[in-house]
């Protein structure tokens, strides 16, 4: 039987590539940079499957170019906002993603952002380096603490749950949550979190963490209105997608002391241009979308996406098929 044709839109680790080459005729964009859109559109034609990243918009245009042979879209990410999953379902194309295995790494980075923003680690490092570190001063470089604080989670899926579990060790007094699925009594009992309306979550929390999926109902939800409901002393963290935040409003809130600080791992666009106003703020920590960036996690994500592609094309159960 002739081998099926697949497209890989980026360099992947050798072991993963070897596995795919044994099974399929592989067309790969052999680079660490994003595949140019015209190249993606021409290479996808007549492929049976595609292994892609969150930087590749797999929308109707790509699916049309692919033609009727395309049966599996496997993304090396848990987020699927770059894939038109509705259109894939309509066309009988299976979508695979990489949940669970990146939960711990992403929760870890969330804690890192909470601490580096509240305890001003990046600002302090710059001050020390720039010669602004004078005599030990009583109230210099102080910030808020998680100990005794109220933490509000917008989105309480796998990552949000793992964040709560980790933050318990920091003495957080109260966890509030708000999700698209509204109240979940199991969460409340097992995790010790309380449901709050979006308004109350913003109003009552000392730390607000966005760990929701990006979709129609969450796009731009952290806007002027939302920031104005937060405490002036609050810290905002975003580890989900840049699209949930109106960045102009965030800049305004940070530069006018409407909120105290922000730690964001995701932006719009990515990369965020180096002259973006958010980079000029001392109270904003920006990391370059590294939530899942441990070697172990990225390797596991790649291998899971490879297995999704193989099983999807074999017609067997995918280890992680994304279902609407
Ligand atoms: C994802 O997988 O969606 C993260 O944003 C990157 O690991």
UniProtKB/TrEMBL annotation:
One term of GO molecular function: glyoxylate reductase (NADPH) activity
InterPro entries: D-isomer_2-hydroxyacid_DH, D-isomer_2_OHA_DH_cat_dom, D-isomer_DH_CS, D-isomer_DH_NAD-bd, NAD(P)-bd_dom_sf
Top-level division of the source organism's lineage: Eukaryota
Keywords linked to the UniProt accession: Oxidoreductase
Name of a matching Pfam family: 2-Hacid_dh
CDD domains: GDH
D-isomer specific 2-hydroxyacid dehydrogenase catalytic domain span: 6-319
Keyword presence, Oxidoreductase: yes
Annotated family: Belongs to the D-isomer specific 2-hydroxyacid dehydrogenase family.
Protein name in the entry: Glyoxylate reductase/hydroxypyruvate reductase
Organism: Ciona intestinalis
């Amino acid at each position: 039987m002739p081998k099926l044709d697949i497209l890989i839109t980026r360099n992947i680790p050798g072991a993963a590539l070897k596995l795919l080459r044994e099974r399929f005729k592989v067309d790969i964009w052999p680079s660490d940079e994003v595949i140019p859109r015209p190249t993606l559109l021409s290479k996808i034609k007549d492929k049976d499957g595609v292994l892609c990243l969150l930087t590749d918009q797999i929308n109707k245009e790509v699916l049309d170019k692919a033609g009727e042979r395309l049966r599996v879209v496997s993304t090396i990410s848990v987020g699927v906002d770059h894939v038109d999953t509705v259109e894939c379902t309509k066309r009988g194309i299976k979508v695979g993603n990489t949940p669970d295995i990146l939960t711990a790494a992403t929760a870890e980075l969330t804690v890192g952002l909470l601490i580096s923003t509240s305890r001003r680690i990046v600002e302090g490092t710059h001050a020390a380096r720039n010669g602004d570190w004078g005599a030990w001063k009583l109230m210099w470089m102080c910030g808020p603490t998680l100990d005794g604080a109220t933490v509000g989670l917008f989105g309480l899926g796998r990552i949000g749950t793992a964040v709560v579990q980790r933050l318990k060790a920091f003495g957080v007094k109260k966890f509030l949550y708000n999700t698209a699925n509204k109240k979940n009594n199991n969460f409340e009992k097992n995790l010790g979190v309380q449901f709050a309306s979006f308004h109350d979550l913003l109003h009552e929390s000392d730390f607000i963490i966005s760990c929701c999926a990006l979709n129609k109902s969450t796009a731009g939800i952290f806007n002027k209105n939302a920031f104005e409901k937060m405490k002036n002393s609050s810290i905002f963290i975003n580890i989900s997608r840049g699209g949930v935040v109106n960045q102009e409003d965030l800049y305004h809130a940070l530069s006018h002391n409407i909120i105290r600080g922000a730690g964001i791992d995701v932006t719009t666009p990515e990369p965020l241009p180096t002259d973006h106003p958010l980079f000029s703020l001392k109270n904003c920590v920006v990391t370059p979308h590294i939530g899942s960036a441990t070697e172990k996690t990225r390797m596991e994500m790649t291998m899971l996406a490879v297995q999704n592609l193989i099983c999807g094309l074999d017609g067997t159960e995918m280890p992680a098929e994304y279902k609407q």
